[in-house]
Amino acid sequence: MSSNAVQHTSMHNRYIVISPAKDEAARIERTIQSMLKQTVKPVKWVIVDDGSTDATPQILESYRLNTDWMSVIRVNRDAQRKLGSAEIRAFETGFQSVQNEPFDFVVKLDCDLEFGPAYFERLLARFDENPRLGIASGVYFENHEGIWTEVDMPPYHASGASKVVRAQCFRDIGGFPLYPGWDTADEIKAHAHGWETRHFRDLRFDHLRKEGSAMGGLSTNVLHGHVFYVTNGGPFYFSIKAAMRMLQGKPPIIAGTAMVWGYLRAWLKGSPKLVDDAEAKFYRAQLKQRLIQPFKRGFHSNNVPEKGQGQA
Fold it and tell me: Which residues is 105 bridged to in the sheet?
């Protein structure tokens, strides 16, 4: 069967996929092959080549010629990778080209992933099961010294590398913010509008490049500090997060220091906040609940009566 003779989504599960790509020649064919093998194909898949200087453009062109639901947009930028800003602006460029297509879901998909043929069919089915589910993903694995290991995420987080957003939720949050921190701000906004966000541990995809390797570990920690500032979590909760990074980061102390610098630099520069006051208030209430939840669980477990003391 040719790639043009495919089973597309049903009328209520139509999805479009936007993929920013930069210098992914070593990995992008595995992502393309994963998409070509999907049991349910997207309405459109737009790959935005964000100024690649390797063989990425040639690889994309060879597949585009034989796949009518795949298109490629070339954007010329400088050679330095700017994760979090140029990446999401490339996504927006792709989305603008297909925003008038009929769709029920929009997907941001990175081009350094590999996943099974039923990945999107199964993930879309989870949205059918829960009408309040607004944003979701599977879980991703990374190869650490030859061993594929699941990357831990908070239960409410959907991976930005393979993020599926219900169309109504996407409209409610105004799309993805076009600044570093978009991958946190979108979920804050979704929660404030009454949507649920999560990932599913039984839906796996492999991340072929270690997280943060495109920027470097310290730069990633600086970015995390910047993100906390622009999502308006407040200095109190940031101080707790930074202290934890000081103790648990890699390397300890240095990782936390880099995070603090990212926060302070964003404050000094007056970086724009990505959430409004109401959304920030909602977010801080969530942070408070997440902070006290372990203590509440411990309190309740310590107060469960032993058998023979009122327990049947």
Answer: 15, 166
**15-207: CATH class:** alpha beta
Tell me the C-alpha distance between 126 and 166, whole Å.
Answer: 11
Which pTM value belongs to this model?
Answer: 0.85
Taking only the tens place, the pLDDT of each residue in 85-95 is 789 999 999 99
The domain ranges of the chain are 15-207, 217-299
Alpha-helix residue ranges (DSSP H) falling in 99-234: 119-129, 167-172, 182-192, 217-230
Residue 84 has a pLDDT of: 54
* Cα–Cα distance, 277 to 283 (Å, whole number): 10
CA distance 162 to 104: 16
Under 8 Å between Cβ of 141 and 152: no
Tokens of 39: 């049991």
* Distance in angstroms (rounded) separating the CA atoms of residues 196 and 136: 9
Contact 246, 253 (CB under 8 A): yes
Q: Which of 111, 105, 96, 112 is nearest to 136 (CA)?
A: 105
Measured in degrees and rounded to the nearest 5, phi and psi for residue 38 equal -60, 135
